[in-house]
């Protein structure tokens, strides 16, 4: 039975809400989204969410509502058994989640609410050969008071493999074998990310250095991860030409970056503590490796592998 990973949340402060401890979501059945009535054009912000998921025992679990659901200003979405939710995106500000949009391998739902504030997106990588989804969103967690303040997702990879999130930017043309641990990262930057390389540990326990995606022009910055250390948060920006900035934060609160220059659209991959819900308890989640796109003189696109982080050193 595969273990889901928590990613997020995005939004404002509020009381934390989550599924039952020990429950391991495997797929979504239904999602209901509520929004605030608006006297102007369109809808107001998102004020509530509820959902039904199937757990590791093949039992349907009903969750929520978190926030408020008004029957006249809500939408119930049915997810078929052969359907997978692989993109959750939206916007948020200091008041909470302002808009949401969902995309499955069959259709799109939304946008709901009214886009305002900062954007967020959780695009899960799809297979290139036959279009099947490599990962899917199987549940949610959030912060809520009387409205929906922030939203995060549980993602599940196929066959227990790390989940591929992204890419942000352009076309992916650089891939690696399945990683289990990230060892080091090197970034070349000027006014954008000119080049990117890293070393990871593969499933055989071998250190695999990855050559530079892009170019070695610009300022070079390298950071290594110590035993038990892992990247728990990655942020950046991108535009039509590729990735313009990157910043990494580890579980030891070491911050690397900002590299490049903030320009274009924001993206962020925050991983909370106890992000991986396993059969033997919860584990922290971490960035294990990357996939991306290499242009002639810059990093065109970047995505991450997310999975169980290495155990901290006692």
From TrEMBL:
Parts forming coiled coils: none
Jacalin-type lectin domain boundaries: 4-157, 162-308
Molecular function via GO: carbohydrate binding
Keyword Cell inner membrane listed: no
Keywords (A to Z) from UniProt: Lectin
The protein, known as: Jacalin-type lectin domain-containing protein
Organism listed in the record: Triticum aestivum (Wheat)
